[in-house]
Structures are given as structure tokens and as C-alpha cells.
């Protein structure tokens, strides 16, 4: 059960997300955030999005079954070599393998995703701590790779910093604790409702303050 929502801070934004199925029983989710806003960020984001798709689907035609860390390193090299007005991109690249019941993930500087375990009564939602250098920032960057097991009822929440760094009138940030509280409260609800609840909470927290960044949330629930 998958849902996503995106709201730009301006008419055009630099956030991106994609759902891809390069192989049977596999779902790839990429969520990214380009530095800056407006048309330049949107163009850079479009280029990064095409890199995600090309690096993902080339697995079909190659004996090289590269994982998220290799995909990120390859994208970093291409973006760094382009030097497109010194932009960079934070991103999470996650591969859900429903046959092997695993999630393999790399992070290039996006806010840590949130996981709420299914079937674990009393276990609160927690962040998946996986740091990484933004794509396009430095030549030759390497990325860590984390493998997690999947269980029915598991909930994963991926957001850009437009969620966690949303500010109220006192310049306080929405933060990760509020995001984890939503995961705890709504983990058994459909993914679409959880995504909408995140945006409602962010907008209510912000009040009359205008958005200071593009906002994206992607929710994945393992239903069986």
C-alpha cells in the first residue's frame, strides 16, 4: 500500500519521488530534494529523476545487479561532473524485495526515514539512522547500504526536509518527533490517509507562516 504527496513552495519545486518496478516482486522508491527552488531546481530535479529511472531499469539488461549504494555512487559521479550551477540533491533510494522480505536502502542526506514495526505491540516508531553525502557535492563519494527485514504491518515514512524543517510563527521546527507520533497513531490506516495526515499536521503547525521549502511525503505499508 503506497501513497505520496508533493506541494511546492513556489510554482515549481525541486523535490522528486518515483515508484519503479524493475523486476517482479520488487518495488524501488526514490525520494529526493534538490537544493534551491523554482525553475533551476525543477530542471535539476528532472535530470536527477531521469538518472534514477535509467540506473534502475538498466538492471533488466545487465548481469550487474547493483544495489542502492552503487546506484547512488553512479548518480553522484554524473551529477558532480555536470556541475550544474553548483546544485546538489539529497536522496533516499530504497529497494523493497517482497520475495526475500527485505528492504535495502541508501541515503544521500535526506531526513532519516521513519519505521513503525508491524506486530510489535508497544514498540514505538523510530528513525532509521543512515547518513550520507548529498549527490553531486563531492567526487568519488561512497554510500552505506542498510538491509532490513520486512514483516506484515510494517510502515515506512519518507519525507523531505520541507516536512521536518517546517516552521511556526516562533520559528520552531516541526521536527521528527511529530512525524513519528503520526506513524504511531495511524500505522494501521491506509497509506493515503497517513500521507494526508502528515500534510494536515504540518499545515496546522505552520499556521500563517508561508512554506519555506518544497514538501514531499511517501508512505509504504507492507500489507501481507
Model description:
With 224 residues, the protein is an alpha+beta fold. Helix content is 30%, strand content 25%. It contains 5 helices and 10 strands; from the N terminus they run βββααββββββαααβ. It has helices at 38-57, 68-82, 161-164, 175-186, 191-206, and strands at residues 2-7, 15-20, 26-34, 89-97, 102-107, 114-116, 126-127, 146-149, 155-159, 215-221. The strands form 2 sheets. The chain has a 5-stranded antiparallel β-sheet. Strands 2-3-4-5-8 form a 5-stranded antiparallel β-sheet, covered by helices on one side. A hairpin with a 4-residue loop joins β4 and β5 (102-107). α1 crosses α2. The radius of gyration is 17 Å and the shape is globular. The N and C termini lie close together (10 Å). 38% of the residues are buried. The mean pLDDT is 91.
Features:
224 residues; globular; 5 helices; single chain; 5-stranded antiparallel beta sheet; 10 strands; alpha+beta
Explain briefly what this protein structure is.
The protein is built from 5 helices and 10 strands, in the order βββααββββββαααβ. The chain is α+β, with helices and mostly antiparallel strands.
Which helices and strands occur, and which strands form pairs?
Blueprint: E1 2-7, E2 15-20, E3 26-34, H1 38-57, H2 68-82, E4 89-97, E5 102-107, E6 114-116, E7 126-127, E8 146-149, E9 155-159, H3 161-164, H4 175-186, H5 191-206, E10 215-221
Antiparallel strand pairs: 1-10, 2-3, 3-4, 4-5, 5-8, 6-7, 6-9, 9-10
Helix pairs in contact: 1-2, 4-5
